[in-house]
Amino acid sequence: MNPALPPSPHDARHHDRRPAPADGPAVALDLRRAVRWLAVAIVGLLAMAVLGRVLHFTGLATRSYTVQQVMRVFEVDAEQSVPTWFSCLLLLAAAALLLLVGQLRRAARAPMARHWTALGAIFVLLSIDEAVGLHNTEFVSEETARGISDYFAIPWVFQGIAVVAAVGLAYLRFLVALPRATRRGFVLAGIIYVGGALVMEMVGASYIVRYTDAHPAVAAVVLVEEAMEMLGALVLVATLVRHLEAEYPRLGAHLVRRPSSGERGEAR
Fold first, then answer.
1. Within 13 Å of residue 242, how many CA atoms lie on the same side as its CB?
2. What is the mean pLDDT of residues 85-94?
3. Which sequence spans correspond to the domains of the chain?
């Protein structure tokens, strides 16, 4: 009797259907949980900012130099502060997700890929602006602006309104073409963010003219303004996460869930 022959390489390849081992452990990013943690961080930062304003206007902060310095780190309208850094992070997160969608649409040769990519670039610029204050470059003198209305006492709102109008018109067709849920999220995020960045800025300008920079009413308006900007950016990030999950289910499976217990065991 002939001895059994070893299987040929062809037979081995034919019968062995097991997937090749990965180079490393698979990682599933839980972006939904990340969005929830971002929301918690916003609440915490705003609570610290409110506490700082309360301590300031009640005079309690002046009793301790250490308290003054700690509260200064959490001022929402300071360029070098934790809330400002966090706002930059939120805008960069939105930019990264927008650029990702643009790349996916380009790879699939889907329409409006450039619109997504350009919008991602706009949010990169918004993040830079949040950090270094590019918008403070004024093309209208303060005297001219105040001559129009107290609401324009901060002159940069002129170019802000112009930019918002230009982007809105350029992206109107893009917005209409979005899936309904994504479109609603974009509109809501835009209303909240622009409402904070422009509308509340104009309200704050009128309060500064009426009172002073140090008035509690001005501080309250600034808190509302920064809170709306953070919330608007967060709504956009959450909308983009849901859009990725709905439009790209294979990708979404890795971006919006945690690894299963089996996956975690294999990773170990």
1. 16
2. 96
3. 79-253
